[in-house]
Amino acid sequence: MEKSVPRILLTGTGSGCGKTTAVCAVLQALVDRGLRVGAFKCGPDYIDPMFHSRIIGAKSANLDPFFFDRNTLRFLLAKNGADREVSVIEGAMGYYDGAGLTTARASSREVAGWTETPAVLVVPAKGAALSVLATIAGFLDFQGESGIRGVLLNRCTAMTYQGLAEEIRRRFGGRVEPLGFLPEMPACTLESRHLGLVTAGEVENLREMTRMLARQAEKTVDLDGLLSLAGSAPPVSFEPVVLPGREPVRIAVARDRAFCFYYEDSLEALEEMGGELVAFSPLSDEALPENIQGLYLGGGYPELYAEALSRNAGMRGAVRRALEGGLPCIAECGGFMYLTEQIEAWPMVGFLPGRCWDNGKLTRFGYVTLRAKRDNLLCRAGEEIRGHEFHHWDAALPGEDFTAEKPGGRTWDCAIAGENLYAGYPHFHFYANPRFAERFYEACVKEKQRYA
Asked: What is the rounded distance in angstroms from the CA atom of residue 10 to the CA atom of residue 28?
């Protein structure tokens, strides 16, 4: 099967080069032109897609070649880009940065290659001149055919861009086109914390910032050139990934400032099987939604809102009683922390033993393959799903029902899993192994039938 998905991939020389700012500028400028715009993010990141979604008014999907095989990744691109006039894919870290220090496996370059998407390299130009050309040359020639078709200079002045653009055309003979620049814009700087950017919901003037970026992009970015490049991308070929339809169930999903890390395609997988997802807030709601057969507590920043979560004793008690009664539950990272006895000194749900504390550094982070040690809510013993860990906080009892293995071979025990529970630091995406979604859904159906 083939679908036309006009698209470009905006990538960078490395983290901090300004690619998220550039992507936000381009997305908003294209939306302001009245186009139906799609957005994607390479890799496992949750935060950048939140910014995309705020701008385009629709979900932003992840394209992760570590999570997905080639067909699934192309299917998700086609599925989410089919009704869009143009789609913008944001890269992760630097273009060639992948699952390890010495490999481009699972990199933005691999996404570009798998999907035949033309790439535009965002190059920071502040404090540099001819070295900008050396950087471009290195990226073009580092690993054979790079897939890079355009260059966008960031933190660049108009005078500098004029000279560098002429030199790019002369030196590279049409292999890559200069597609404009963005000047330094201090008022549009996005703040960071230890897991990356702050979330979109925490940026009070986000709309004003993106409109300012869009106005600048209309002046100094070759948007018509980007659209032309996107139109040159070939159709996406794929075989559909079909999930089984089941009887309807209601699944409560925690969604507020404390719990906001979800892969939207994962949630849609549950909906496609027949699930009704009911949002609720552990911060402000006093009880779980009524008549639910499943519970999904995603990741986020519960440590920032520990006092408020703790003071909401009604919700903490409701969650504990539901789990003690056997309600099927997935709790990833922040959701797992919420189920323990304490986050620092603040009491939490207490369904799981132990407390959580700030470890002061990234802990057991990176891509992992999760292998079940015993039958559980999500899978049978020995079955696997690919995921990732990315957290500064640790738990006294992080679990031992799965084995996590990094691509380099390092392993550790993780997660607490039983007949009705998965709770642990690792995040995963249902499309990395749809059988995990099916097993969770089947448990929710059994829960419904228990009270029929």
From this structure: 14
Write down the catalytic residue from 24, 42, 329, 333. 333
Return the ∠ at Cα 46 (arms to 280 and 104), rounded to 5°: 155
- Write out the two tokens for 4: 């036309």
pLDDT on residue 415: 98
Contact between residue 262 and residue 27 where contact means Cβ atoms under 8 Å apart: no
Pairing of strands 7-12, 411-414: unpaired
Q: How many CA atoms lie within 13 A of 383 on its CB side?
A: 14
Which CA distances in Å does 164 have to 134, 161, 173, 295, 300?
Answer: 11, 5, 14, 54, 42
Q: What average pLDDT score do residues 391-416 get?
A: 94
String of DSSP letters for 325-368: TT--EEEETHHHHHHSSEETTEE---SSSSEEEE-SS--S-EEE
State the first-to-last Cα distance of the chain, in angstroms, to the nearest integer. 41
The whole model's pTM is what? 0.95
**Hey, which residues does 148 pair with through a beta bridge?**
119
Q: In one letter, which amino acid is 387?
A: G
Chain segment 73-129, per-residue pLDDT in tens: 999 999 999 999 999 999 999 999 999 889 999 999 999 999 999 999 999 999 999
Clarify whether 333 is annotated catalytic: yes
Dihedral Cα 395, 400, 401, 407, nearest 10 deg: 90
For residues 287 and 318, what is the distance between their CA atoms, to the nearest angstrom?
A: 6
Q: Which residues contact 332 (CB under 8 A, 6 or more apart)?
A: 261, 297, 298, 299, 424, 425, 426, 427, 428
Nearest residue to 226 (alpha-carbon basis) of 145, 119, 137: 119
Q: 343 and 306 in contact (C-beta within 8 Å)?
A: yes
| DSSP type of residue 303 | G
Helix (H) or strand (E) holding 252: strand 249-254
